[in-house]
Amino acid sequence: MNLTLLDTGIILGYIVLTVLFGFWVSKRASKDMQAYFLGGNKIPWYLLGLSNASGMFDISGTMWTVTILFVYGLKSAWIPWLWPVWNQVFVMVFLAIWLRRSGVLTGAQWITFRFGDQTGGRLSHIIVTVFAVISVFGFIAYFFEGIGKFAVIFFPWDLSVDQGLIQLTSEQSYALIIIAVTTLYTIKGGMYSVVGTEVLQFVIMTISCFVVGIIAYTNVSGEQVMEAVPPGWTELFFSWEMDLDWTGYLDSVNKRIEDDGFGAIGLLLIAMIFKGIFASLAGPVPSYDMQRVLSTPTASEAAKMSGLTILALYFPRYLMIAGFAVLSLVYLTPEFREMGADIDFETVLPLAIERFIPPGFQGLLLAGLLAAFMGTFAAFINAAPAYLVNDLYKKYINPNASSKTYIRYSYLASFLLVAIGLIGGFYASSINSLTLWITSALYGGYAAANALKWIWWRFNGYGYFWGMIGGLIAATFIPPLFPDVTPIYLFPVIFAISLAGCLIGTYATPPEDDETLMNFYKKTNPWGFWAPIRKKVLAADPAFVPNHSFGRDAFNVLVGIVWQMSLVVMPIYLLIRQSTELAITFLIFLITTWLLKKYWWDKLED
Asked: Which ranges does the record mark as transmembrane (predicted)?
């Protein structure tokens, strides 16, 4: 693809601007660890919310989502429940408040707040740090795979290298360059740099999304979409099977559906809901989302930040996704048909940009998508070093070092994490395989221990440690034993092994001391199975008001999931001209928004 001088200038200008911004805020960020990793808890919640939305607008995920919408139609709106995407609703409704009340720097430090600083607490502290680092390695490999496929289509230069031991494809060279630039500005500016650049990135991405939506709306009619897709493609709901047959439309898509393992959508949905409840109740994993929550000034603002993330992210993102999907269906299907079985569906997004976006806007859109990648990647490499420096080096090796020393080690930790993650990226097979492994296998080992830590007083540090160990081992070794099984179907097995480790470790050792448990319960005030501790807290402080809002929180979670789903499907209905369904969905959006305002927003407390 030959970019115009204007397009190239926009992209290069954006890259230079982000690097300069990182250096500009580096003095403020390097003041101390609190400033570097949490922005000193002085960044407004609405900026953190836009930053979080930008961080979730990653290019690899966008490419994957365009692909599944192309293949599965409206039913693809259910497939991101693999993560599950509605874990953010749990965070919005109650988990952000519980988490922020701790006042800690990282998720691993929160574990010490929950389990204390004795042997069990220290073991649990170490294992969650290990999990945080492993998950970052997986995501870096995921980003590496996505940005390389994206960049090679648009940038005209051949950057392949074949010099003895150093052999790189153009995809790999582009990925390395973009990752190096992102790492540079993130390391220098810390959380200030991440949030500042991500707010700018959010503005660019939102403009780009509406540009794509307008282009698709003016160039594709509802009749053209209906002619390009098989029966059932425009239907949101389904029976036990996916019931999509692309024969005669684009036969190779049938092979993609078979390879994905999403054909039995009913069974898949049951598995996703089972996994989703436990994974969501576990709370945010120790990465960028948790860092945003901990960065907010107050607990109620942490909840507002999480709600804004959903509102700001889903409608514009799916407007772009739907725009590219319908343009590709109508205008690129004949070309895909000629490719036969050799279609790389993960290139649908880049090809659509190349064909349908006019010069000038191409530069803006590519800068926006590049911004989406850089924002997500930056968020991860800002969060991860905190675990190595604050939770290992500072806690166990050198607790009395200067702030300048800790910041320098944070720089070094960032470089090491990126370097190791990139090694994994060279061996990644596809975005889809990485997505399924991260969402289904790795998080399967996380869910049991991290759900119990909130709701069960007897659960202790040893239980957490052995539950996480069992989950990580199961997530590593079970999927290779069943290579033909979609990873989410293995989640119950991994979860059961992890749960067994939790229970054995807990009952084989004594509970945490009363002081630790009472401090955690009184400060966090969660609902759940806390009766023995609640009685002791009330005896010591009769003015304490326990949390009895489980019913309201459960109601708000259900409403929030419907609210989030309406933001996903509205732009799709808009671009495929399903006016009746669009009107119904918009009405559902208004009703759920009112319910959340009345029963969630108005009830928020610090």
From this structure: 6-25, 45-72, 78-99, 123-144, 164-187, 199-217, 262-285, 306-332, 364-388, 409-428, 434-452, 464-482, 488-508, 554-576, 582-600
